[in-house]
Amino acid sequence: MLDDIKKTLWAAADKLRANMDAAEYKHLVLGLIFLKYISDTFAARRSELAKRFADPKDEYFLDGADANEIAAELEERDYYKEANVFWVPEAARWEALRAAAKQPDIGKRIDDALTLIEAENPKLKGILDKRYARAQLPDGKLGELTDLVSTIGFGDDANQARDVLGQVYEYFLGQFASAEGKKGGQFYTPASIVKTLVAVLAPHHGKVYDPCCGSGGMFVQSEKFIEAHGGKLGDVSIYGQESNPTTWRLAAMNLAIRGIDFNLGREPGDTFTKNQHPDLRADFILANPPFNISDWWHGSLDGDPRWVYGTPPQGNANYAWLQHMLYQLKASGRAGIVLANGSMSSSQNSEGEIRKAMVEADVVEVMVALPGQLFFNTQIPACLWFLTKEKTQRKGEVLFIDARKLGSMISRVQAELSDEVIERIGSTVAAWRGDKEAGTYEDIPGYCRSVKLEEIGQHSHVLTPGRYVGAEEIEDDDEAFADKMQKLTEKLGEQMAKGAELDQLIRQKLKGLGYEF
Questions:
Q1: Rounded mean pLDDT of 278-291?
Q2: With pLDDT > 90 as the criterion, what percentage of the chain qualifies?
Q3: Considering the chain, what is the average pLDDT of its residues?
Q4: One domain, residues 161 and 219
Q5: CA nearest neighbour of 334 among 233, 177, 418, 209
Q6: What is the structure's pLDDT at 184?
Q7: Total count of domains within the chain
Q8: Would residue 190 count as lying in a domain?
Q9: Quick one: which of 309, 306, 462, 326 has its CA closest to 389?
Q10: What is the DSSP string of 288-317?
């Protein structure tokens, strides 16, 4: 049911896009969905309060209050704040905007509504993107888009509303990433990759950090994991950073929608030169940094304390990201990072030396090779690095998992890891770490193997799983080779004889038509 709603909404919204670039249109649509959500949850809370004020059995009962007194009480902001509901001024409420949808100044009205909401809710300051008055949509299209978003029903149940909105928002993020292609991948990591990171790390408590958070997908999947395992959102605190201002806003809205408390820094900023959380030591880090960035270096980074294992090459940021993550981890913390496959084996410009130092310091825990075509924005093969500062189990070993053949195609150009595959990877790592509930770990040829650091050193500290896990075992069908060969030879003889007969028949037919050989 919800899937049908999402697809119908996307088809309708995409139809209204006209000639506008998906990258620009994305912010108009997602901003309106956010505005509709906070207005709906405000209205639901207001309706709930009105009922409670009139109920003699309720602690909020207003004994003897007249209509004006009740109306005044409904405007008290504390009632909304205590329920984690954003305060929405009357002029910014959705019904007022919906009523004016066909007016030529609807863009300005939406911008004004967003300005009012920001003024009343400090947490949203600088987050809401006020670009509607100058949007390059044909006449009437913004009004049609407003009418379309009006059809999204979030209901009176705040938790259900949050879930519906969150799913719609996430679906639209994915669709926009697909529509934008290469550019879209800068703000969106495919869900199956995020789920795999979450399944291995199990971030259920403490501080969760993503230094290149895009639209916040890592945090959303962490939230889902926590809830699925009986925990509460309050068990974790969220820290993030993002350099792109518009993507930074998308992340903040994505988290605000779900009622997740977050700290994305005071402003968008480059993680290397303007680290927003320099003193943070995280329990879990989940990140998908942009691959192979060549223009990341700045002179101020020379001698930076983060470069514990060696100064990263100025032409590629991969090993800067890995060392930044390790630096921001607490002693018992774990990090999961998506990187290009080249990071596992490159030896140019000091990368091989840094990788060697990391392996010998025993901070590399698990390496996972991923299938191709998982990303919207690149065909570069990718892998997952799992790092930890202090191993409590399996000291002096690294677990290698080769998942390259485990992808499922979901479209002509897009693959994903199924939930079963993700669970298998998560269970394999848990068993390897010694989790009693995960069973006993065993090496499986072609899939996984636990390798001592000495052996990795013999391979020049290359961390490509395919080099260590070996070939997949072929099932024995109990048929002797000689017998099988005889059958195949007989089959080939039959087919060659049949081919000769057909050749002779064709020659006869052509002869009848006057052709000579």
A1: 93
A2: 49
A3: 86
A4: no
A5: 209
A6: 45
A7: 3
A8: no
A9: 326
A10: -PPTT-SS---GGGTT-TT-TT-PPPTT--
